[in-house]
Protein backbone atom coordinates (compact mmCIF):
# COMPACT_ATOMS: atom_id res chain seq x y z
CA UNK A 1 0.00 0.00 0.00
CA UNK A 2 1.21 3.47 -0.85
CA UNK A 3 2.06 5.94 1.91
CA UNK A 4 1.19 9.58 2.40
CA UNK A 5 4.44 11.48 2.98
CA UNK A 6 4.90 15.03 4.22
CA UNK A 7 8.20 16.48 2.97
CA UNK A 8 8.96 20.05 4.08
CA UNK A 9 11.85 22.38 4.78
CA UNK A 10 11.87 24.20 8.13
CA UNK A 11 14.11 26.57 10.01
CA UNK A 12 15.73 25.34 13.20
CA UNK A 13 13.01 27.17 15.15
CA UNK A 14 10.26 25.37 13.24
CA UNK A 15 9.06 27.83 10.60
CA UNK A 16 8.42 26.80 6.99
CA UNK A 17 8.04 30.40 5.80
CA UNK A 18 9.19 33.75 7.05
CA UNK A 19 6.66 36.34 8.31
CA UNK A 20 6.12 37.62 4.76
CA UNK A 21 5.98 34.09 3.26
CA UNK A 22 9.64 34.33 2.21
CA UNK A 23 11.62 31.14 1.65
CA UNK A 24 14.85 32.74 0.41
CA UNK A 25 16.58 31.24 3.46
CA UNK A 26 16.32 27.73 1.99
CA UNK A 27 19.78 26.27 1.33
CA UNK A 28 19.42 24.05 -1.72
CA UNK A 29 22.74 23.24 -3.37
CA UNK A 30 23.41 20.60 -6.02
CA UNK A 31 23.86 17.82 -3.44
CA UNK A 32 20.53 18.44 -1.75
CA UNK A 33 18.75 19.14 -5.04
CA UNK A 34 19.93 15.82 -6.48
CA UNK A 35 18.75 14.04 -3.35
CA UNK A 36 15.32 15.69 -3.68
CA UNK A 37 15.13 14.79 -7.36
CA UNK A 38 15.76 11.14 -6.56
CA UNK A 39 13.20 11.05 -3.76
CA UNK A 40 10.53 13.02 -5.57
CA UNK A 41 11.09 11.23 -8.87
CA UNK A 42 10.14 7.95 -7.19
CA UNK A 43 6.77 9.29 -6.02
CA UNK A 44 3.42 8.41 -7.51
CA UNK A 45 1.89 11.86 -7.23
CA UNK A 46 1.59 15.22 -5.48
CA UNK A 47 -1.31 16.15 -3.19
CA UNK A 48 -1.17 19.92 -2.89
CA UNK A 49 -3.16 23.02 -2.06
CA UNK A 50 -3.99 25.77 -4.54
CA UNK A 51 -1.35 28.25 -3.35
CA UNK A 52 1.45 25.68 -3.42
CA UNK A 53 0.43 24.47 -6.87
CA UNK A 54 0.25 27.98 -8.32
CA UNK A 55 3.64 28.91 -6.87
CA UNK A 56 5.22 25.82 -8.42
CA UNK A 57 3.43 26.42 -11.73
CA UNK A 58 4.91 29.92 -11.98
CA UNK A 59 8.43 28.55 -12.43
CA UNK A 60 8.85 24.84 -12.96
CA UNK A 61 6.97 24.19 -16.23
CA UNK A 62 9.63 26.05 -18.24
CA UNK A 63 12.64 25.97 -15.88
CA UNK A 64 14.47 23.53 -18.13
CA UNK A 65 14.23 25.85 -21.14
CA UNK A 66 16.90 28.14 -19.73
CA UNK A 67 20.26 26.84 -21.03
CA UNK A 68 21.96 28.34 -17.97
CA UNK A 69 19.86 26.30 -15.54
CA UNK A 70 21.84 23.64 -13.65
CA UNK A 71 21.23 20.03 -14.62
CA UNK A 72 19.46 19.30 -11.32
CA UNK A 73 16.99 22.12 -12.03
CA UNK A 74 16.26 20.90 -15.54
CA UNK A 75 15.80 17.38 -14.20
CA UNK A 76 13.31 18.50 -11.58
CA UNK A 77 11.33 20.55 -14.10
CA UNK A 78 10.59 17.39 -16.07
CA UNK A 79 9.75 15.48 -12.88
CA UNK A 80 7.30 18.17 -11.78
CA UNK A 81 5.57 18.49 -15.15
CA UNK A 82 5.04 14.76 -15.54
CA UNK A 83 3.99 13.95 -11.99
CA UNK A 84 0.23 13.42 -11.47
CA UNK A 85 -1.15 16.07 -9.15
CA UNK A 86 -4.28 16.46 -7.03
CA UNK A 87 -4.95 20.11 -6.21
CA UNK A 88 -7.28 20.78 -3.29
CA UNK A 89 -9.20 23.99 -3.89
CA UNK A 90 -12.71 25.34 -3.41
CA UNK A 91 -12.15 28.15 -5.93
CA UNK A 92 -10.31 26.61 -8.90
CA UNK A 93 -12.34 25.00 -11.65
CA UNK A 94 -9.32 23.41 -13.27
CA UNK A 95 -5.55 23.27 -12.93
CA UNK A 96 -2.92 22.72 -15.57
CA UNK A 97 0.14 20.49 -15.68
CA UNK A 98 -1.31 17.02 -15.19
CA UNK A 99 -3.48 18.17 -12.29
CA UNK A 100 -6.97 17.27 -11.08
CA UNK A 101 -8.92 19.65 -8.83
CA UNK A 102 -10.62 18.22 -5.74
CA UNK A 103 -12.80 20.26 -3.38
CA UNK A 104 -12.05 18.71 0.00
CA UNK A 105 -10.01 16.11 1.83
CA UNK A 106 -12.17 12.98 2.06
CA UNK A 107 -10.42 10.30 4.18
CA UNK A 108 -12.13 7.38 2.43
CA UNK A 109 -11.07 8.71 -0.96
CA UNK A 110 -7.48 9.17 0.24
CA UNK A 111 -7.37 5.63 1.63
CA UNK A 112 -8.66 4.28 -1.68
CA UNK A 113 -6.01 6.31 -3.51
CA UNK A 114 -3.34 4.73 -1.30
CA UNK A 115 -4.47 1.28 -2.40
CA UNK A 116 -3.86 2.03 -6.07
CA UNK A 117 -0.56 0.84 -7.58
CA UNK A 118 2.37 3.22 -7.83
CA UNK A 119 4.75 5.20 -5.69
CA UNK A 120 4.02 7.02 -2.46
CA UNK A 121 2.05 10.28 -2.45
CA UNK A 122 3.52 13.55 -1.19
CA UNK A 123 1.27 16.04 0.57
CA UNK A 124 2.51 19.59 0.14
CA UNK A 125 1.73 22.80 1.98
CA UNK A 126 1.23 23.40 5.69
CA UNK A 127 -2.49 24.16 5.41
CA UNK A 128 -3.24 20.95 3.57
CA UNK A 129 -0.86 18.96 5.76
CA UNK A 130 -2.75 20.15 8.86
CA UNK A 131 -5.99 18.86 7.35
CA UNK A 132 -4.40 15.51 6.49
CA UNK A 133 -2.97 15.25 9.98
CA UNK A 134 -6.36 16.05 11.51
CA UNK A 135 -7.70 12.96 9.72
CA UNK A 136 -4.62 10.89 10.71
CA UNK A 137 -3.65 10.40 7.07
CA UNK A 138 0.10 11.16 7.14
CA UNK A 139 2.28 8.05 7.36
CA UNK A 140 5.78 9.53 7.08
CA UNK A 141 7.48 12.87 7.75
CA UNK A 142 10.60 13.99 5.91
CA UNK A 143 11.66 17.19 7.63
CA UNK A 144 14.63 19.09 6.19
CA UNK A 145 15.98 21.33 8.96
CA UNK A 146 17.91 24.32 7.62
CA UNK A 147 20.64 25.95 9.75
CA UNK A 148 18.86 29.25 10.29
CA UNK A 149 16.83 30.84 13.09
CA UNK A 150 14.09 33.04 11.65
CA UNK A 151 12.64 34.29 14.92
CA UNK A 152 9.24 34.89 13.30
CA UNK A 153 7.25 33.15 10.61
CA UNK A 154 4.66 30.51 9.92
CA UNK A 155 5.12 27.32 11.96
CA UNK A 156 4.89 24.01 10.15
CA UNK A 157 2.97 22.28 12.91
CA UNK A 158 -0.03 23.97 14.50
CA UNK A 159 -1.59 23.36 17.86
CA UNK A 160 -3.68 20.20 17.73
CA UNK A 161 -5.15 17.48 19.90
CA UNK A 162 -3.96 14.83 17.43
CA UNK A 163 -1.08 13.08 19.21
CA UNK A 164 1.25 11.15 16.90
CA UNK A 165 4.08 8.95 18.12
CA UNK A 166 6.88 8.80 15.55
CA UNK A 167 9.85 6.53 14.96
CA UNK A 168 13.09 7.84 13.43
CA UNK A 169 14.03 5.69 10.44
CA UNK A 170 16.71 7.86 8.83
CA UNK A 171 18.80 10.94 9.44
CA UNK A 172 21.29 12.56 7.11
CA UNK A 173 23.44 15.66 7.28
CA UNK A 174 24.18 17.41 3.98
CA UNK A 175 27.30 19.39 3.23
CA UNK A 176 25.47 22.73 3.40
CA UNK A 177 24.30 22.09 6.98
CA UNK A 178 20.76 20.93 6.20
CA UNK A 179 19.73 17.86 8.20
CA UNK A 180 17.07 15.39 7.08
CA UNK A 181 14.95 13.83 9.82
CA UNK A 182 12.83 11.00 8.41
CA UNK A 183 10.11 9.68 10.70
CA UNK A 184 7.38 7.11 10.28
CA UNK A 185 4.25 7.14 12.40
CA UNK A 186 4.37 4.38 14.99
CA UNK A 187 1.91 1.66 14.10
CA UNK A 188 1.30 3.06 10.60
CA UNK A 189 2.41 -0.08 8.80
CA UNK A 190 0.53 -2.33 11.22
CA UNK A 191 -2.61 -0.22 10.88
CA UNK A 192 -2.42 -0.36 7.08
CA UNK A 193 -2.01 -4.13 7.15
CA UNK A 194 -4.90 -4.60 9.57
CA UNK A 195 -7.16 -2.32 7.52
CA UNK A 196 -6.31 -4.15 4.30
CA UNK A 197 -6.98 -7.53 5.92
CA UNK A 198 -10.31 -6.34 7.32
CA UNK A 199 -11.42 -5.06 3.93
CA UNK A 200 -10.64 -8.36 2.26
CA UNK A 201 -12.40 -10.61 4.78
Structure write-up:
With 201 residues, this protein is an alpha/beta fold. 30% of the residues lie in helices and 26% in strands. The chain has helices spanning 30-41, 50-57, 71-82, 107-114, 126-134, 188-199; strands at residues 4-11, 15-17, 45-49, 85-88, 99-102, 121-124, 140-146, 154-155, 166-173, 179-185. The protein starts with a strand and ends with a helix. 20% of the residues are buried. Residues 2-180 form the Bacterial bifunctional deaminase-reductase C-terminal domain.
N/C terminus separation: 17 Å
Q: In which range does the helix fraction lie?
A: 25-40%
Oligomer: single chain
- Largest beta-sheet characterization: 8 strands, mixed
Output the number of helix runs: 6
Mean pLDDT, all residues: 89
Number of DSSP strand runs: 10
Structural class: alpha/beta
Poorly predicted runs: none
Shape: globular
String of helices and strands: EEHEHHEEHEHEEEEH
Strand order of the largest sheet: 5-4-3-6-1-7-10-9
Alpha carbon gyration radius: 17 Å
Please state roughly what percent of the residues sit in beta strands, choosing from under 5%, 5-15%, 15-25%, 25-35%, 35-45% or over 45%: 25-35%
Amino acid sequence: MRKIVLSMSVSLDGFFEGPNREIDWHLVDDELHQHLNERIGALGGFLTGRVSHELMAEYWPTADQDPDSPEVVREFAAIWRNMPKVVYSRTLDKADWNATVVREVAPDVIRALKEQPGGDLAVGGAELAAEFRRHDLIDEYLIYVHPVLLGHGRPLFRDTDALAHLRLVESRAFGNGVVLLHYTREGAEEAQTARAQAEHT
